[in-house]
Each structure stands twice: as structure tokens, then as C-alpha cells.
Structure to design on (279 residues):
């Protein structure tokens, strides 16, 4: 579902944006784990949840890797362990495209040449729409033409068309953050945005706290911290204690072991919830 032509090397603007379907409070701890200096800002109205991450540096120059490879790796790393998708937009002198990462599923992407010629697969666009929960009729009527030849639409216009569809889901890119702009200009525009903040690596201790924050905010978060987690821990203890005693009385090592596991899980769950509440 991914098209990966060779990277471009000619002169021209190179840049990337990471769009997260979550508010900045949810994105911040996950972004810390990238160990990169980024600018984080809201990218939605008051009733929706979208955030944008703008790289402060140009790691694709330092590592000698194409911009799409770098940004796709970041999107995949961000999406693991959270319950919101990450959309990476990228462009260089020869191509433009996007990569959508969602949980542990294989990422999906599409590529256009700089002149707008589509070189991706139609199925990738349909998968993209399905994973973001877009309207299969109305939104696909706009997305499908992006996969067809159009002499009047270059690569930048293709990404703008994609963003127009996402605007129906509440995405609003802040002023100055537009596809096709050089990375330096994106960085300067992001720095002066209302609510913008810098996210950067601050050591392993904070990284561990950030990773735990990601777990707490992920799909299993309610079961590892909070009222549901405490209820689950007490239930495991309530079931584990009599099960272990019954196993010992019947001299059944299997039942005693199962009871011990439930007791341990319940105790650890309650302890984790208490520790995280004090952190």
C-alpha cells in the first residue's frame, strides 16, 4: 500500500509536519520519547482535537536519509501505544506525500511527484480514509481525484486538497504552516503561534515518566490507572486470595499458582495507581 520511489536530491524546499489527532496534553508525553527537539501547537477548533508537531532541526540532512523515511519513522513511533493516529506530511524537490500511522498496524502512505503526478496506489487512499473515520462517500469524492492525473495540480496542491478534506474533521493548520514551505520557514512560523511550546529530550528519568504518561493516556489507560484500575485490582485480590487458599487446601499447585498470579497482579495494579497519583 506504500509507494517508495527514490529520494530526490535536487534543489528546492524540503519540509515536514506531523499532525496528531489528539490535543497537546496527550501528544506532549509521546513526543518526548522521540528524543528530538520539536515545536508543538494546537491545530483545531475548540470542539475538536488536533495538534501539529514541527521539527526544529533537519535530521534528514544529518543522517543522509530522505525526509519521508525520517518523518514516517517518527509517525510510527508516536502512534505506538496511543489511541490516536498520526499523519506525517512531507515534501522535497522531487516528491510530496503523506504517511498515516495508527497503533501497531502497518502504516499507509501515498506519493505524488513534484508536478502532481500520482505514483501511489488507490487502495492506500481508501485505507487512509477508513482509518481516520472519514465519510466513505462525501470525503472519498474529494480524495479519489487526488489519485488521478491532473495537469493543473502540483504536489503542493495535492496536499492542500488532502488537508481540505481533513478540515471537515476539525483540523485547522495554524497560519504559516503550509505544505511546500521550507523547514526553516515552518520553524519560525511555529515559534510565534499562540499556545506553541518546545518539546525536547530531558533525560531518562523524565523519559520514563513520559512513557508512563503515554501508557496512562493509551487505550488501556483506564485499566492501569484510575477508578477502573482500582476496581480491577481489588477484584483480582478478592478472587486471588480464596483461589490460592483453596488450591493450598486441595494441594493443587495449579490453582494455588493461579491465585497467586491474580493476587500479584491486583497488588501491583493498586500500587502503580497509588504511585502514579503521587508522581
Amino acid at each position: 500500500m506504500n509507494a517508495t520511489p527514490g529520494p530526490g536530491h535536487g534543489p528546492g524546499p524540503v519540509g515536514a509536519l506531523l499532525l496528531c489527532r489528539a490535543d497537546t496534553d496527550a501528544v506532549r508525553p509521546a513526543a518526548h520519547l522521540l528524543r528530538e527537539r520539536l515545536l508543538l501547537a494546537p491545530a483545531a477548533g475548540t470542539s475538536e482535537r488536533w495538534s501539529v508537531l514541527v521539527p526544529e532541526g533537519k535530521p534528514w540532512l544529518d543522517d543522509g536519509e530522505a525526509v519521508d523515511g525520517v518523518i514516517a519513522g517518527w509517525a510510527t513511533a508516536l502512534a505506538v501505544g496511543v489511541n490516536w493516529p498520526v499523519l506525517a506530511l512531507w515534501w522535497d524537490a522531487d516528491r510530496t506525500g503523506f504517511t498515516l500511522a495508527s497503533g501497531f498496524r502497518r502504516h499507509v502512505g501515498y506519493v505524488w511527484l513534484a508536478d502532481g503526478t500520482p505514483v501511489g496506489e488507490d487502495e492506500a487512499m481508501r485505507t487512509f480514509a477508513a482509518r481516520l473515520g472519514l465519510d466513505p462517500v462525501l470525503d472519498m469524492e474529494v480524495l479519489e481525484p487526488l489519485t488521478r492525473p491532473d495537469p493543473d495540480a502540483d504536489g503542493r496542491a495535492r496536499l492542500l486538497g488532502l488537508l481540505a478534506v481533513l478540515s471537515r474533521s476539525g483540523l485547522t493548520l495554524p497560519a504559516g504552516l503550509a505544505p511546500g514551505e521550507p523547514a526553516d520557514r515552518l520553524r519560525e512560523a511555529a515559534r510565534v503561534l499562540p499556545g506553541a511550546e518546545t518539546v525536547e529530550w530531558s533525560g531518562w528519568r523524565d523519559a520514563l515518566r513520559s512513557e508512563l504518561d503515554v501508557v496512562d493516556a493509551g487505550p488501556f489507560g483506564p485499566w492501569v490507572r484510575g477508578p477502573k484500575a482500582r476496581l480491577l485490582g481489588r477484584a483480582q485480590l478478592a478472587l486471588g486470595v480464596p483461589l490460592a487458599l483453596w488450591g493450598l487446601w486441595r494441594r493443587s499447585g495449579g490453582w494455588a499458582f493461579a491465585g497467586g498470579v491474580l493476587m500479584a497482579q491486583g497488588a501491583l495494579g493498586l500500587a502503580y495507581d497509588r504511585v502514579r497519583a503521587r508522581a
Observations:
- Residues 7 and 230 are 51 Å apart (CA to CA).
- The chain has eleven helices and seven strands.
- The two ends are 43 Å apart (CA to CA).
